[in-house]
Write a structure and sequence with these properties.
21% strand, alpha+beta, 8 helices, 2 domains
Length: 358
């Protein structure tokens, strides 16, 4: 892709302007904002400068290759060929950096896993999925904190909500939103018949600078006694918190031991859900084709099947099938599913950039 020089100049001009303003800024909030934009623009500016440097060397090498000095001309031709070999990859890198991207790509996230159809087996599968994400998070150096959970009668979870904190969490996990289906023989099935059950996954961005105005009159806060496995782990007081946002009907809960901590966590979760609602409305308005894109986040869509008898994992959005189900569910091979989804999304973004440049 031949990127317009005007677009490259625009990136470098903005980067230099940010650097100049950072040197003169005195206001703390402005310094933070400029530093964030500087960090986002620096890899783009570095790649653009590298591209311009290579493009700038080509005319001089072409002139040397046409000179009367045979030895010098041969060396120049070799260098020119090497330069031209580098150019497409560098142009692709710059194009990818310039392509429209999710504004919440680097944000932390709220992960919600819920049992769907299938009764006890669905709750067990929801537990399997949550553990898969926990283990995957460990490999990425992310921190996982459980905000609320409701255990299944036979194990697993009817519902579990957790905060996943780290760099680029949402950018890697956002493609997990949707319906996950499992096909296997439940332990309780005496006849050895394969059952199909499902669990839903929702991944919501948790940007640091989210600003959502919540009026006191728009929420109802209830306290209750959380349920658990029994014994010492069950709260003896009404410390769990449920917050209902009356205008939207959104309900969030937190059920740790401290009521104060639960209220803070529930308010954070409510802001994330309201932000996600705004984000979805903006995304839908921006693109009518959003539902057909890999990262649509449509949580009613069946996105993946885990078939235990065949040891198979199939992602239906990109027709990807892998025969390493145990490693995927261990989190060890989840990247083998996530990376192709990211690549597909990048291809769509590059296509949008090509449309923009004609």
């Amino acid at each position: 892709m031949r990127l317009p020089q005007a677009r490259l100049d625009q990136v470098l001009d903005r980067f230099r302007e940010i650097e100049a303003r950072m040197g003169a800024a005195a206001d703390g909030a402005e310094i933070v904002r400029l530093s964030k934009e500087h960090a986002e623009l620096k890899p783009v500016a570095d790649a653009v400068l590298a591209l311009e440097r290579i493009r700038g060397e080509a005319p001089e090498l072409e002139e040397m290759a046409a000179s009367g000095d045979a030895e010098m001309a041969a060396l120049a031709r070799d260098e020119l060929e090497a330069l031209k070999a580098k150019l497409p990859a560098l142009e692709h890198e710059v194009a990818l950096l310039l392509a429209p991207k999710d504004r919440d790509e680097n944000a932390s996230a709220i992960l919600e896993v819920r049992a769907g159809t299938g009764g006890d087996e669905a709750a067990l599968f929801a537990g399997d999925l949550f553990r898969m994400y926990q283990r995957y998070a460990q490999t990425q150096g992310w921190r996982v904190e459980i905000d609320s959970l409701s255990e299944g009668d036979a194990g697993g979870f009817k519902e579990i909500v957790a905060s996943v904190t780290g760099d680029g969490v949402f950018g890697r996990l956002k493609f997990e939103s949707g319906v996950h289906r499992v096909q296997r023989v439940p332990e309780t099935e005496a006849g050895g018949r394969i059952h199909t059950s499902a669990a839903t996954v929702a991944v919501l961005p948790e940007p640091e600078d989210v600003e959502i105005d919540i009026k006191d009159g728009d929420i109802r806060i209830d306290t209750y006694r959380s349920s658990g496995a029994g014994g010492q782990h069950v709260n003896k007081t009404d410390s769990a918190v449920r917050i209902t946002h009356l205008p939207t009907g959104i309900v969030v809960t937190s059920s740790e031991k401290s009521q104060h901590q639960n209220r803070a966590r529930a308010m954070k979760a409510l802001k994330v859900k309201l932000y996600d609602q705004q984000r979805e409305a903006l995304d839908s308005a921006r693109s009518e084709s959003r539902k057909s894109q890999v990262g649509s986040g449509d949580r009613s869509e069946r996105i993946r099947t885990y078939n235990f008898p065949q040891g198979r994992v199939t992602d239906h959005r990109i027709n990807l099938t892998l025969y390493n189900l145990p490693k995927v569910l261990e989190g060890e091979a989840l990247d083998e599913v996530i990376k192709p989804l990211i690549a597909e999304d990048q291809a769509a973004r590059l296509s949008a950039l090509e449309d923009e440049f004609g």
